[in-house]
Design a protein that fits this description.
By secondary structure, the chain is of the alpha+beta class. The chain has 2 helices and 9 strands, in the order H-H-E-E-E-E-E-E-E-E-E. The strands form 2 sheets. Strands 6-5-4-3-8-9 form a 6-stranded antiparallel beta sheet, with no helix packed on it. A 3-stranded antiparallel beta sheet has the order 1-2-7, with no helix packed on it. The chain starts with a helix and ends with a strand. Residues 16-102 form the Archaeal Type IV pilin N-terminal domain. It comes from Natrialba aegyptia DSM 13077. Residues 54-79 are annotated as: Disordered.
Length: 178
């Protein structure tokens, strides 16, 4: 009697559908998708999505009076000017300036120091920004060294990078000559 009921409800071996196999495949797929979503949330994969780099148009120039081959005879000190022409504003605490020689060796890495309201490096190069609120259109940063040339002395060619630290993106990468 049970065999007859079994055949009636479940069907014979030839009539049975593949629904158990499809059910198992769907359960595995749901489990894999759920595990991927949980892993992404736990590992913070979406954290950096909002940190996009600002778009700016900047010009980099030098003072023409500086003679890098003979720093003692010049009335000025070496300076590199980074001017923000247009585009997004950048807060100083999200800004880093890197000055390299023509071989790529770092001469100065300038990070914003809120206590002194200036950018300072490990050498003698400094940028005073006490008269500025943001690096925005119309602002010019003057990277200056002392009269002897300091970090910038003896260099004919400099590479200046402006880095947006929040997104870790180079905003400007320019090469200038004295």
């Amino acid at each position: 009697m049970f065999d007859e009921l079994n055949k009636k409800f479940l069907g014979s071996e030839d009539e049975r559908a593949v629904s158990p196999v499809i059910g198992v495949i769907l359960m595995v797929a749901v489990t894999v998708i759920l595990a991927a979503v949980i892993a992404a949330a736990v590992m913070g994969m979406g954290d950096g999505i909002g940190n996009t780099a600002p778009t700016t148009n900047t010009d980099v120039s030098t003072n023409s009076d500086w003679d890098p081959s003979n720093p003692g005879t010049s009335n000025t000190h070496p300076a590199v000017y980074v001017s923000h022409s247009s585009g997004d504003s950048i807060e100083f605490e999200n800004l880093r300036l890197v000055v390299r020689d023509e071989d790529g060796a770092s001469l100065a890495t300038l990070d914003y120091d809120e206590s002194s309201d200036s950018f300072t490096s490990n050498g003698d190069t400094e940028i005073d920004v006490s008269n500025l609120d943001l690096f925005d259109a119309g602002a010019t940063l003057s990277i200056e060294s002392d009269e002897s040339g300091g970090d910038l002395a003896g260099e004919d060619t400099l590479n200046v990078q402006v880095v947006h630290t929040k997104s870790d993106t180079t905003v400007t990468d320019s090469t200038v000559e004295f």
